[in-house]
Amino acid sequence: MPSLAVAEASNAAFCPSYIPVAVVVGGTSGVGQAMAEALARQTNGRAHIIIVGRNATAAAEILATFPKPTDSDADGWAHEFVQCDALSMASVRAVCASLLSRLKRINFLVITAGGPAGNSLLDCYETPEGLNAHLAMRYFMRYLFTKELLPLLVSAKEMGQHAHVMTVLGAGFGLALRTTDLGLHEAHRNSIKFLQGVFPNIAAIKGIATGVCYNDGLVAHFAAQHPDLAFTHISPGQVLTAGGSEVYLGWLLTPLTWLLNIFKRAISLTQNERAKYMLYALFDADRGLFIRGDHGDIVSAHVFSRDHKPQFDVSSPTAHKKGFLNGVPMKGYGGSDASVAGLIAYTEQVLAAILR
Predict the structure, then answer these.
(1) Is the domain 4-350 a CATH 3.40.50.720 member?
(2) What is the reported pLDDT for 200?
(3) 45-98 pLDDT, tens digit each
(4) Are 348 and 226 in contact (CB under 8 A)?
């Protein structure tokens, strides 16, 4: 894995002739914020950076710190905030429609948002649209942002520029994709309600883990659909942030919570340090699918041929083998061609019902 010095040196070499357009979903806190700030510094503000999130006040404070370009060839730069409730697929689609109507391209789509709804070990609930809240934040909104904004990434690639989708979550664990109860509705119904909020919830834990595996399926699906673009699922590792540096297991497990947080802080890096590794991975990809670790290192990768059929062959000898993609074994990848195909069919059905 690259050292921090190697990552910094690689990032410093990023100096495109064009004004890069980056959309950072979840850019008002944590690693997303740090990545947006690092990109602004790296380009000396000579970039069109769009932070998507809920907190307008935090966004204004972040954008105010971005350097502003002074050179005459910086036409087209902008630093802006777009408000979005990522728990709502209708809100996500509306934001995407707005971006599609006014942008000509996107070079980098980075999705980091998780928040309490996506990360809580104690609370598990369904959104007004009927989605498991963990899956809404950790999978469905990421899928929808990617699908809706793909035309702008394709345009960037056709111009000979970077075109990269990065979902920051929990890559490299190789957890198997679910083939039953894909929406975790049964898990939610079977959870012990009177312990919710005071003790780790099994349905919440399943939501956290399932979202991780589904992101493997997400990048595999879109990489097969668009072999000329880059798609990455990456793990940010343990990060010292206001929202992510503490684990809370409920008051019944307070002593264990103390011990876990001591250990977590010992192995964590600051969000700015983690962002440098994430940026290293963002710049270090041409096309294909990448599963990356928390230092930006490639755990496994696969480049589809340009004549690859967009749909996976679910009748192939390896179609049902976990950790195989298009017949190729992939370290740290939890999907199989059949399970990814099933996940995507389910996802499209669910989103169609919500957004009709």
Answers:
(1) yes
(2) 62
(3) 999 999 999 999 999 999 999 999 987 667 889 999 999 999 999 999 999 999
(4) no
Report pLDDT digits (tens) over 322-356.
999 999 999 999 999 999 999 999 999 999 999 99
Least confident of 37-46, 94-103, 262-271: 262-271
DSSP 8-state code for residue 194: G
DSSP conformational letter for 199? S
- Check if the beta carbon of residue 243 is closer than 8 Å to that of residue 54: no
333 vs 177: CA distance, rounded Å: 10
Of 136, 146, 144, the residue nearest 166 (C-alpha): 146
CA-to-CA separations, 233 to 87, 166, 222, 282, in angstroms, rounded = 20, 6, 12, 10
* CA–CA distance, 71 with 137 (Å, rounded to integer): 39
Q: How many residues does the chain have?
A: 356
Both tokens of 198, joined, read: 């005071």
Q: Is pLDDT larger for residue 129 or for residue 263?
A: 129
Quick one: CA torsion of 256, 258, 262, 264, rounded to 10 degrees?
60
Report d(CA 30, CA 35) in Å as an integer: 9
| Helix or strand run (H / E) with residue 301 | strand 298-302
The per-residue pLDDT for range 150-166, each reduced to its tens digit, is: 999 999 999 999 999 99
Give the HSE-up count for residue 275: Cα atoms under 13 Å, Cβ half-sphere: 24
**Do residues 344 and 351 touch, judged by C-beta distance below 8 A?**
no
Domain residue ranges of the chain, discontinuous segments joined by +: 4-350
pLDDT of residue 226: 96
Give the DSSP per-residue string, 77-107. -EEEEEE--TT-HHHHHHHHHHHHHH-S--S
Q: Which residues contact 151 (CB under 8 A, 6 or more apart)?
A: 100
d(C-alpha 250, C-alpha 248), whole Å: 6
